[in-house]
Design brief:
Layout (H helix, E strand, L loop, with lengths): L1 E2 L2 E9 L3 H11 L2 E3 L10 H6 L8 H25 L13 E2 L1 H6 L3 H37 L7 H4 L4 E9 H12 L4 E8 L3 E9 L3 H10 L3 E3 L7 H28 L3 H20 L5 E2 L3 E9 L3 H11 L5 E6 L3 H6 L5 E2 L8 H7 L10 H16 L2 H17 L4 H24 L10 E2 L2 E2 L11 H29 L3 H27 L3 H25 L3 H13 L1 H10 L2 H21 L3 H4 L2 H37 L18 E2 L5
Length: 664
């Protein structure tokens, strides 16, 4: 239960086995491929032994695959959006497969045939859509001119000119009045909208220029009539073409609908293409000599045997050389990735550690130390049997009925585990959807609540601080433990044990003077605290070359005691949030209870569901955020640095399926 111990694996094989070897490594999903061309001292042998090794140009291949993936997605979306609605569209249902099973029946020829068919239909659809759009624009334009019963260019003569155009409604009246003063002009209004008037005028060519000047002054916009038929006849023609276009699209939609069965095949192919992309992306990290390849990577110690078995099952011993090495100190400092390995109950809580920062390879994994506290704190802040049961049932049902993506699986498992302390604290506080549990059933007295959120507020407050006190002591113990691991014994005392001594000593003083009234406790506590404070004050003096600077540092460190008081106060939020969530739930119940019976059992039911859903969401969110904050600030701050590099194995995208090499 810690950071997984890594080993460096080297695989050498004939170049012809490259794809088989990469597929095997990808299938196990637990090997990170090293970049052998990075300028690291442990990669110098590449230049020495493979000076002419070619570096794989991955961009052309990746671009081609990306284009293929994009086309596949476009095809699926096209069928989804344009297919006949009566034809059922089924997408790939997430399942668990091995990589071998995923790629077993893949046929590039069949995939290309399906994809081409759909993309051809898409092209036809787009052509029809474009034509339809053009016809619609023509229809709209011709509709405004449909009352014009002649073709303008045919109506013009040697002496006259026919002009058609639009003018704003605001200027139309004045424009017509102005033209009325010119006897050589005949004006006719064709149609009118809210903003424009469509009109034509016939004018003698001798005054055409003067009339055009008037038209320009009033903002008249000339239009050209592009058709040989009259507007009415042309409009009829356009409507017929539009109808034909609609009918063609309906027939095309039926054809597209028939492609609904391709959706799953296309999504399956996309998953395979995504896996290919991952394999191609790492090919520039290993050596490609003329006849052989050299691949290096990082693998967890526990997956080592599994990798050997799978490689030997794929290639014979004569075809591949396989070796493992412990990482050097330099590699540990520079590049060994961090992979966490914890008990299944603890593993979901790794997401909290990852959200903060992964530990460095040689650093302690804080997850198993943090988990018990997070469980208690989360449960204390939610503290409702009903909310806990809903979380538990929801998580169980989701895991039973669905194959969830891995990230979602871990998140659902996380809340499934957190449901248990939420229920337990619900019993302690006696809260079921904000309603108190009965204190007696059939004459049997029940022990609920163990702690009343209304009468035992001070007890809950003290309990919160005690939990915080214990967590801080554990954090200081881990700080000392890490220093001892590095043989920094004085730092172990200075950063860990001495602070524990001060805190425990002060608590003994409080207990002795306020609770048990025993001077022995007071003297013991005071002595422990003073001795510990002196350690903090004097150890930096021993460690520093300048005694003055060491004394100043020791005094400054001792001043840090005020920070511990603030840390302990932070834990009072456990009490505050636990009480507030239950109180809000109880207030919602009371609100609905005040409603008249008819409303209570109709609208009231919907209202109480909505209100409790809101309260549950806010309570879980608060517990999640504040629980994490207590770990990050008050706990991690005592011993944890982080900054590790995440393990990045060669794996698949798992967009539609989960890859599990153990699935046969």
């Amino acid at each position: 239960m810690a950071v997984t111990k890594m080993e460096k694996v080297t695989l050498i094989s004939d170049k012809r086995n490259q794809e088989a070897l990469l597929k095997t490594i990808q299938g196990i999903q637990n090997v990170e491929i090293r970049d052998l061309f990075q300028e690291k001292t442990n990669n110098e042998w590449v230049d020495t032994y493979f000076p002419k090794a070619t570096i794989f140009e991955k961009e052309p291949v990746l671009n081609a695959l990306s284009s293929r993936i994009m086309q596949t997605r476009e095809a699926v979306q096209f069928i989804d959006h344009h297919g006949d609605k009566q034809q059922k569209k089924q997408h790939l249902k997430r399942r668990e497969l091995s990589l071998e099973e995923l790629e077993a029946d893949y046929s590039e020829e069949d995939f290309t045939k399906r994809l081409t068919e759909v993309l051809d239909l898409k092209k036809q659809w787009e052509t029809l859509s474009e034509k339809r759009e053009q016809l619609s624009e023509q229809e709209e334009w011709l509709t405004h001119w449909s009352n014009l019963d002649f073709t303008p260019q045919n109506f013009s003569s040697r002496q006259t000119t026919v002009v058609m155009g639009t003018i704003s409604v605001a200027n139309a009246t004045e424009f017509r009045e102005e033209l009325a003063k010119v006897p050589e002009v005949y004006v006719e209004e064709i149609s009118e909208t809210d903003h424009f008037v469509y009109l034509t005028y016939v004018v003698l060519k001798t005054v055409a220029v003067a009339v055009e000047e008037i038209a320009t002054r009033y903002g008249f916009v000339k239009e050209t009539y592009p058709y040989e038929r009259s507007p009415k006849e042309q409009l009829q023609q356009v409507k017929q073409e539009l109808q034909a276009c609609d009918e063609a699209q309906k027939k095309l939609a039926i054809k597209i609908g028939r492609c609904s069965s391709y959706i799953q095949e296309l999504e399956w192919a996309e998953e395979i293409l995504l896996a290919m992309v991952e394999r191609e992306a790492v090919k520039d990290r290993f050596v490609m000599a003329p006849y052989l390849i050299v691949v290096q990577g990082w693998v967890g110690e526990e997956e080592k045997q599994e990798l050997i078995q799978l490689v030997e099952a794929t290639l014979s011993a004569d075809e591949v050389y396989l070796s493992f090495e412990e990482p050097t100190e330099e590699e540990i400092d520079q590049e060994v990735p961090t992979k966490l390995k914890n008990h299944p109950i603890v593993a979901p809580f790794e997401l909290l550690t990852e959200m903060y920062s992964l530990p460095k390879y040689h650093e302690i994994d804080p997850t198993p130390w943090m988990t018990p506290f997070y469980l208690v704190f989360f449960g204390m802040m939610v503290a409702d049997i009903g909310y806990g049961l809903l979380m538990l049932l929801g998580a169980i049902i989701a895991q039973k009925l669905l194959v969830l993506p891995r990230g979602m699986q871990r998140f659902v498992k996380f809340f499934e585990i957190l449901a248990i302390p939420s229920i337990i604290w619900g019993f302690i506080y006696s809260s079921f959807f904000g309603q108190a549990l009965p204190t007696e059933i059939a004459g049997i007295h029940l022990p609920f609540p163990l702690l009343s959120t209304t009468e035992d507020v001070n007890t809950i407050l003290i309990l919160s601080v005690i939990f915080g006190f214990i967590q801080i002591l554990v954090g200081l113990f881990l700080a000392a433990k890490e220093h001892i691991k590095r043989k920094d014994y004085l730092d172990a005392v200075n950063d860990g044990f001495a602070w524990q001594g001060i805190l425990v000593g002060l608590v003994l003083v409080l207990i002795g003077s306020m609770l048990v009234k025993n001077t022995a406790f007071v003297y013991l506590g005071a002595g422990l605290a003073i001795f510990s404070a002196l350690c903090i004050l004097f150890i930096p003096i021993f460690q520093s070359s300048s005694k003055v600077k060491g004394a100043a540092k020791g005094a400054y460190n001792l001043y840090g005691l005020t920070g511990y008081i603030g840390d302990l106060v932070s834990y009072t939020r456990l009490m505050a949030l636990g009480i507030s969530g239950g109180s809000i739930g109880a207030a919602f119940n009371m609100l609905v209870a005040f409603m008249p019976p008819a409303a209570r059992f109709s609208v009231g039911i919907l209202l109480i569901i909505a209100l409790h859903a809101l309260n549950m969401f806010l309570t879980l969110l608060s517990a999640y955020v504040h629980g994490a904050r207590l770990q990050y600030v008050e706990f991690f701050g005592k011993f944890y640095t982080g900054g590790g590099r995440a393990f990045d194995p060669l794996k698949t995208a798992e967009k539609y399926v989960n890859i599990n090499h153990k699935k046969k």
